[in-house]
Amino acid sequence: MNQKDLTSAATKAWLCLFVVSLLLALAACGGASATTSAPTTTTPTTVPTTAPTTVPTTAPTTVPSSGNSISIAQFAFTPNNLTVKVGTKVTWTNNDSVTHTVTADQGAFNSNALAPGNSFSFTFSKAGTFSYHCSVHPSMTATIIVQ
Ligand SMILES: [Cu+2]
Description:
By secondary structure, the chain is an alpha/beta fold. It has 1 helix and 8 strands.
């Protein structure tokens, strides 16, 4: 065994010790790192869905298309043209939110001021065409045909 071999053996010994110590250090480090920095899973907060508000369906306003009743609503007489027989009593009802009148153009009948919710009736004893209007709102016109 010469000087060179001894140096080599010493280097190998130190190298081996270094590797062992390095492995121990890694093992210790690895064990430590496993316990730390655990990702915290944030549970998503469930947003409560607002229940859809049920919109109440507005009851359809029944407008008599025939008969002897006339509805006054939304600044109009409905039906706008009504044909009745002689002797028929026609009734107008103010279903609007403002006062109207049922005034015959030729003066056969006149309800005067008809407040909301009030009614006016007139019996047609003669045949003919009776156009009428609202004296408050001249654009409101309608016709009664008596046969
Ligand atoms: Cu009117």
